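Troubleshooting log. The previous structure file for this entry was overwritten by mistake, so regenerating from the original sequence record. Sequence copied from the archived sheet and checked twice against the printout by T.R.
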Amino acid sequence: MPRPRVGQDPVMQVIAVNNPSTAGQRVTVARSLSVAILLLLAGGALAWLTLGTPLVTSFMPYGRPTPLQVAGGIVVWGFAIVVPAAFLIMGVARLAAVVEALAGRRPRKVTPHLASALGPDHIAATDLVLPGGRRLHELVLGPFGIAVLGAVPPPSFSRHVGSRWEIRDERGQWVPIEDPIQRASRDAERVRGWLAAEDRDFLVKVFAAVVTEDERVERSATCAVLRPAELSPWLAALPAQRGLNAARREQLVERIRSIAAG
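Regenerated output below.
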């Protein structure tokens, strides 16, 4: 079970849990990479057999070939040129898709940038898993309450029209995903419900925001959309919640740490 790492920054604490990729994700990436390598090897081997050996020329007719022999020679040379090239192109495309997917899905956390911008009355947490299995990208606790920060996949391998989002997988195919704006709003509701389940006397204010450079993403009534440079001023501008005293804040910190520890 991964243990949470608590970074004692001079201005802000960060609770982080290193969650490695699941076995299924590792198998998918390994399978795609293996297929790419096999395609490249097959293309290279076929290219060597057809161009580096007399295999193809042995099928070529000599003298005055018949029309059938001419047609056969065309088929052989077409195979020698098209098939190895097709294997090589498919292998390169599959390998590029794997590399792009791995690079695009690398975690992009904003809390390291927040650590130097927010005061000691803030605490951030990453990769928390709520009871029930819902994973949170990032969360910030401050005088205002809690802000749930969502993630948006990079535009290089995602696309969307309205609330319909798709992401390109390792095979280069587009598959639907949950709308990041709606997901952040739902995550905020789940955090609100999780906290209210044990303390009904005090309801913590929970905000939702998505941090992205993608100008195509639009805010909703329940979720703000911010550029990275706008996040710290936005958090600082949120009004302090009355009743969120030091004792209640410490209780919230302990609850966050409890699910970070698993």
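The chain is about 45% helix and 20% strand. Archived copy saved in two places this time.
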